[in-house]
Design goal:
Length: 581
């Protein structure tokens, strides 16, 4: 932060303290990893003479401290150019070291070498005094070796706690350090060594995956799948005002089969009722099968990936557009409500870098309110939301609400159905009913659009295959006083199309959302795209095709169809885009 004073000088004293505080768990985790080897050598010293142990500790210290010093110094300079903490990207440039060094002046290189030498010398002197000398003063091999070994092994095992990041559901990840709507403060809290090691452990060559055809051909086909220009008089307006407030519900594991109005079971009765009161899209598909991927699809209009999740790569996910980011540019206030752990799968880093100003998560609820494994159940979440809406910060606002109670193990304070999943959906739906009934009494109702969409569908019944297209059919419902009149829209689409459709209705440009199309544009290609582990599906009114890449074959539909080529082209272009971010 001192090195990047032009940005850090804007931070308050409280911000500086918050950076240190929120980054501390990641620092402890990193320290925990590097302490494992000295701890094992300490155990070995119970059985082996210290004259063999001390040199091993010394060599380990020299290597580790030099590498850590190098990472820290390279990171603070690269941040000036890249705007994200060091990951595996520099390794790509090291393939051509001459070209990489050509962009660095001789003076800067000399300053860097001197700083590295000073930094390493300083930490190594501390290491010799406080660590290595302790090993030199170890007593001779003790008589009671076994008890000492057991004792030290148990002590070493305690390193698991800082390494994992505590006992919460989420393990330590880069997003844990994110706490602010100011990206620089979040980046400052990230430990660069941890960030680099995490990226090494998960980075893959995305632009080498799913190569179905020539790149030019893939991009030619993809262009036909994007939204085409059309006169504005051809696109109907669903709203009675241009800039209403927006409340966006992301419903855990809901699907069309839960809603009678969509041909499903009479489980989510309140949502079924809203289908006749508002606008319902009847041929929608979940882009994926996981929450982290579904959130990205819903809010950033970016298709999920079958082999990874862009949310796990903060340097990539922060480059995505988002509904809330676009709305903030138009003067909206953006908040996010979730009763669970916002650090799970780097969700916090994505949300805060995508425009969220206020993030309410599990730690914002009383301990007694966090009744379930995942955090505060949905009725507690809804109660908090209704309370806050009595005094909204400013209007217009966009509030995103993520439910959690219909997630395994489906433990909810209600018993209506024998099936645990259906019962949990009915419970969450009852909470939504309470919200709608109470919110209708608020003066905000008349100028608010309420959107309901799942994060992904549920595998129900459990015998359904992941390659079955019905596995991915989901509801998309628009309600609220801002809806002009009830309507049913049968055009085929997916979660990634919500961004373009919604932003157009609000009179806000959506050019940044490359993969999202306006479902109400008659010239938009009509299809729904979904994927699963190493496979994808492509659904149109004419045909649905499902391809299992692991088997290298089409398992549903016609392998010679236009739809199959379109699905392959979209997936190939998606991984091209992912590799470039």
């Amino acid at each position: 932060m001192f090195y990047h004073w032009d940005q850090a000088s804007k931070a308050s004293f409280g911000d500086w303290f918050a950076v240190i505080w929120h980054g501390l768990p990641m620092d402890l985790s990193t320290a925990g990893y590097f302490t494992v080897v000295p701890a094992l050598l300490l155990i070995a010293s119970i059985w082996v003479d210290r004259k063999y142990i001390v040199p091993a500790v010394n060599v380990y210290g020299i290597v580790v401290l030099f590498v850590i010093s190098l990472i820290f110094l390279v990171d603070i300079e690269l941040y000036s150019h890249w705007g994200f903490r060091i990951d595996t990207t520099p390794f790509f440039y090291l393939k051509s070291p001459k070209d990489a060094l050509a962009s660095i002046s001789t003076g800067m290189l000399l300053v860097g070498v001197v700083c590295l030498a000073l930094c390493f010398a300083g930490v190594y002197l501390l290491f010799r005094r406080y660590i290595l000398d302790r090993f030199r003063k170890l007593p001779k091999v003790p008589v009671r070796r076994v008890p000492y070994t057991v004792y030290m092994t148990l002590i070493t095992a305690l390193l698991f706690i800082p390494i994992r990041g505590g006992f919460s559901v989420a393990t330590m990840n880069v997003g844990t350090a994110y706490f602010s709507s100011q990206l620089f403060l979040n980046h400052s809290a990230v430990n660069p060594v941890f960030n680099l090691l995490a990226s090494i452990g998960s980075e893959t060559h995305f632009d080498k995956q799913y190569r179905f055809m020539d790149d030019d051909e893939a991009h030619r086909i993809f262009r036909t799948l994007t939204e085409q220009p059309v006169g504005t008089d051809s696109i109907p307006s669903l709203l009675n005002q241009q800039r209403p407030n927006v409340i966006f519900f992301i419903l855990e594991s809901f699907m069309s089969k839960d809603i009678a109005a969509l041909g499903g079971l009479p489980v989510a009765q309140n949502l079924s009722k809203l289908c006749s009161e508002g606008v319902v899209f009847t041929n929608m598909y979940a882009n994926s099968f996981r929450t982290d991927r579904g959130i990205i699809s819903n809010l950033s209009g970016y298709p999920a990936q079958p082999t990874t999740s862009i949310m796990k790569y903060p340097a990539k996910s922060q480059s995505l557009p988002s509904i809330q980011k676009s709305l903030r540019k138009a003067g909206y206030y953006a908040s996010y409500y979730y009763g669970g752990d916002a650090d799970f799968t780097n969700m916090r880093s994505y949300l805060l870098s995508s425009g969220i100003e206020k993030l309410v998560s599990d730690k914002d609820f009383l301990l007694k309110e966090r009744m379930s494994k995942w955090g505060a159940p949905d009725h507690i979440l809804i109660r908090r939301l209704l309370t806050d809406l009595q005094h909204p910060p400013r209007q217009p606002f966009v509030t995103i609400v993520q439910t959690l109670s219909s997630h395994e193990p489906f433990e909810v304070p209600m018993h209506r159905f024998k099936d645990p999943y259906l019962n949990s959906v009915a419970y969450t739906d009852s909470c939504l009913g309470v919200f709608i009934n109470e919110f209708k009494k608020s003066p905000l109702w008349e100028n608010t659009l309420v959107v309901f969409v799942p994060d992904h569908a549920m595998r129900y019944p459990s015998t359904i295959e992941n390659t079955d297209p019905n596995r991915y059919k989901i509801p998309l419902i628009w309600a609220g006083g801002a809806v002009k009149k009830p309507a049913k829209i049968g055009r085929y689409g997916a979660q990634m199309d919500i961004a373009a459709t919604l932003l157009y209705q609000l009179g806000i440009p959506h050019n940044e959302f490359t993969f999202s199309k306006n479902l109400l544009n008659p010239r938009s290609p009509e299809f729904g795209f979904f994927d699963f582990v190493d496979g994808f599906g492509f659904a149109t009114p004419r045909m649905t095709v499902v391809y299992d890449h692991a088997q290298k074959k089409v398992v549903y539909g016609d392998p010679n169809s236009k739809e199959f080529r379109q699905g392959k082209a979209l997936l190939q272009c998606l991984y091209d885009d992912l590799g470039k971010r």
